[in-house]
Amino acid sequence: MVAARRRYLESGVYEPIAAGVWQALMDGLEGEAPYACLDAGCGEGYYPRYLRQQDKEGQLALIGLDISKWAAMAAARSSPDIRWLVGSNAQLPVPDGSLDALLCMFGFAVPEEFLRALKSGGIWVQVEAGSDHLLELRRIIYPTLKADKDVAQEPAAGFSLEACERIRCEISLTSQAQIADLLLMTPHLFRASAQGLEQARQLTSLDVQVDVLVKVLRRL
Ligand SMILES: C[S@@+](CC[C@H](N)C(=O)[O-])C[C@H]1O[C@@H](n2cnc3c(N)ncnc32)[C@H](O)[C@@H]1O
């Protein structure tokens, strides 16, 4: 799964999402650099690596954390100039009020722990799939699709919602292997019907929508 995620993300198809996160940080960070920024559930580390490349002035002190030792090890090998940790979002190994920014991308958000770890005025950048994300693939692998889940939610206690950008674009997956990597790195592999998965495995190309919400929540 880690290797599939690495190949898929390094192909560049999700770069618009990474660029949206970089912009959210640049717009939302306040006070003096360097900014302590932790990616909670960083996977194999694509997004911290992208941020490191964008950060020409060295404004971000980046930490990537994942509960999977294999993911954190793959991340550490790819970019030794970022700190990588094995740990849980439910108990971040950082002092109270020490982070300027916390990223949670397609992962397991723990609002009360994020509240503890962030400085007052710090930001939590929450990235999640919108209702049309990978719609064309989901139409193939599920017999029926769940209803639209884009309902506005109240921000978690202790946070105010400062911004919500919707990133939409269409991407072209150009090989059976790339489609297999996408399936392997998402929970869809475990939830989809056997028949749907078989149909997806036969595809040699697929155009799919990317539909992602980048929310910025500021710690009060
Ligand atoms: C869907 S993947 C997203 C990875 C990465 N953010 C990305 O977008 O490429 C979710 C990640 O969260 C990690 N994870 C799951 N539960 C976690 C927890 N309690 N604490 C930290 N990481 C967790 C998984 O190991 C996995 O790498």
Distance between the termini: 37 Å
The number of helical elements comes to 9
Q: Would you state the CATH class? A: Alpha Beta
Radius of gyration: 18 Å
Number of domains: 1
Task: Compute the average pLDDT.
Answer: 95
The best one-word shape is: globular
Structural class: alpha/beta
CATH topology: Rossmann fold
Low-confidence stretches: none
Organism: Alcaligenes pakistanensis
Protein name: Methyltransferase domain-containing protein
Domain Methyltransferase: 38-121
Pfam families: Methyltransf_25 (PF13649)
Characterise the protein shown here.
The protein is an alpha/beta fold. Helix 1 packs across helix 7 and helix 2 packs across helix 3. Helix content is 35%, strand content 30%. The model has no long low-confidence stretch (mean pLDDT 95). The chain has one domain: Rossmann fold (3-Layer(aba) Sandwich), CATH 3.40.50. A 7-stranded mixed beta sheet has the order 3-2-1-4-5-7-6, with helices on both faces. It contains 9 helices and 7 strands, in the order H-H-E-H-E-H-E-E-H-E-H-E-H-H-H-E. The structure holds S-adenosylmethionine (SAM). S-adenosylmethionine binds next to loops.
